[in-house]
Amino acid sequence: MTLHDVKAFVFDVFGTVVDWRGGVAREAAPFLQRYGAAGSQPEAFADAWRSRYVPAMRKIISGQRSFVRLDVLHRENLLDVLPEFGIDPKTVPSEALDELNLAWHRLDPWPDSITGLQRLKARHIIAPLSNGNIRLMVDLAKRAGLPWDAILGAEIAQIYKPDPQAYLRTAEALMLKPEEVCLVAAHNDDLAAARKCGLRTAFIARPYERGPGQTVDLKAESDWDVVANDMNELADAVGA
Amino acid sequence: MTLHDVKAFVFDVFGTVVDWRGGVAREAAPFLQRYGAAGSQPEAFADAWRSRYVPAMRKIISGQRSFVRLDVLHRENLLDVLPEFGIDPKTVPSEALDELNLAWHRLDPWPDSITGLQRLKARHIIAPLSNGNIRLMVDLAKRAGLPWDAILGAEIAQIYKPDPQAYLRTAEALMLKPEEVCLVAAHNDDLAAARKCGLRTAFIARPYERGPGQTVDLKAESDWDVVANDMNELADAVGA
To answer: What residues does B169 pair with on adjacent strands?
Structure first.
């Protein structure tokens, strides 16, 4: 068992632990209805909003822009995406935009997430290593009952994944060597970046994260230390 | 109720949530026996070790020294205190010193801490605002079952209490105004520093924190927003 020395499992959250697409679509639906885009698909809106996430972070990773928390990027991206759905942001009260932005704080976990995390927690430290900010992660966890031991990730590291420092500073905050930390993610590129930093890697398949037409991350694309279909299979694999 | 708008309770930990003196003495006893100080009182050793804590932090708060985590200060202070008990640190294996240093990671909560925190957690964010480092707080919480929503405090803020930034950066990490955060502490000076930053304040009496001869912090020395005898009384006071 290559994960024998792992002391902490750290998790990608959006897509791996919680269903961002379903959660954002659920909250976008009444918003689109109310502000004149009743004919739009809420799932398409969630996809369009999410598609602006990586480009926005890249400006920070590249140093073009100082670190700001993900809530700020989500809010800017929301203004950017609305016209695509025929909504002029100026016609929407600021409070309604703030409220929709909080959809990202109210995402549901996948059915196996809670039990899997509880099992892993018994003998390991578990924490998010997410690009989501601290408050966002706290709100998600309190609403869903995610039993984290600590909230780690981009805001603690002050840099976004996949910058190597996001992984290395997380291990350092736990006073662990990189090889004592295992990243759990549904995304091959996240795992590849973690492996380059010396972390262990566990792939969880989430083939419907991006809806029924998902074409990426359908399966493990490398020999990750663990490949599992859900969080309980991961717990089984590490004897938790 | 002045705490109506409080969204988060943040906690001093050493002395307020856990019994550092009893826990350190428990682990120091066999150490002192083994390394030739069998006649010493383990509680006196705990007191002497702890007495070096504030001066060590002051060097960092004053800018004389860059931030290092509390585990580092504890380890240095341990080397400093041993000769006072007739032990030459050079005669002790480094691993034994490391192990004793981890006594601070294995402190027991006061009897009311867990139930009080669980009650407060139902409708508020709860997190340590301790000078202890992240890993130390995680280890304490896992061993004792402290149900924190996040681990905040000195290592996140990169500065020790009572520097104002320790309080302000904690509120900021939670995306809350200072007055939406209440510090819970058994120490009047900690509460005074928090109040200066605009936080709400709750005093919990821990009259035996420093043993039967305690002379400081026996009672509230100002009109803190709440004054309680234990964590459950605090939960009662805020309707949790």
So the answer is: none
